[in-house]
Amino acid sequence: MIEIGKLNRLEYLNKVDIGLILGDGDREVFLPAKYAPENIKQGDVLDVFVFINAEGNMIATTRIPYACVGDFACLTVTDATERGVYMDLGVDKDVYVSDREMKRPMHVGEKHVVYIYLDEKNDRLLGSSKLVNFVEEDEFDLEEGDEVELLIADQSDLGYNAIIENKYIGLLYQNEVFEELQPGDIRTGYIKRIRPEDKIDLSLQPTGFKHILSLRDDLYAYLKENGGFLTLGDKSSPDDITRRLKISKKAFKKAIGGLYKERLIVISDYEIRLVDPSESK
């Protein structure tokens, strides 16, 4: 079955004056000549994206779209009308977003994360930035501590909303993010907590004891590679620690505390240094 708005693997059936006819044994679709590979033979199979053009005809292209129906994606606004905008999908067909499907106004040249779906009446490609209407909200196939792929969606007063594995939505709290994020950024994240009201809290750092062990190893390696010194210590400001190491002061203190207990470092107010082997004798 040919799926509109998605990638399809179709067989080359016949050649016409302006292109090729492809099919799946049930339906046929037209591939314009400019997209036809050289030296193609009848019976060959092509991977194509299928869409409905302005005339209502089903068209195929060998160009790969930025996203397909059912995906969340960050797209650029290319044109605006009185009732909505068009967004670039990377093929000869834009995605239309009506005013009523905008979380906030969109303007030409801006990038926004949208969900892509089909108009039930005419199979037209549509988008919506009201992402919460399209995510799964219960029966999460997730556990606290899971490593996941995040698509940064937008920023709120609390932090950054992010799409999780193209299915769910969660929140990265502002005071736990130590880098500048933009809509469309892809990051590896971690499930920090699934709250009773089915809200998901996220983190860009692994959670729990494993995270502290990882930081401990990273700090130890840094000290060995940089003369055994780091000009951050017990009384350094949280801002200085975050700016230089991209971690919170709480995580920093836990990591250096582990190294100190192993007698690998000496800690002062504004500096840590590796213990000289002679000092440990």
Task: Describe it.
- By secondary structure, the chain is mainly beta.
- It has three helices and 18 strands.
- Strand 17 and strand 18 form a beta hairpin.
- It is elongated.
The CATH class of the largest domain: Mainly Alpha
- Indicate the proportion of strand residues: 35-45%
Lateral strand order in the biggest sheet: 3-2-1-4-5
**Poorly predicted residue ranges:** none
SSE layout and pairings?
Layout: E1 7-16, E2 19-23, E3 28-32, E4 45-52, E5 58-61, E6 72-80, E7 84-87, E8 95-98, E9 111-118, E10 125-128, E11 147-155, E12 159-164, E13 168-173, E14 186-194, E15 200-203, H1 209-225, E16 229-230, H2 238-245, H3 249-261, E17 265-267, E18 272-274
Helix pairs in contact: 1-3
Brief descriptors of the model:
single chain; 281 residues; mainly beta; OB fold (Dihydrolipoamide Acetyltransferase, E2P); 4 domains; 5-stranded antiparallel beta sheet; 3 helices; 18 strands; 14% helix; 37% strand
Q: What's the quick description here?
A:
With 281 residues, the protein is mainly β.
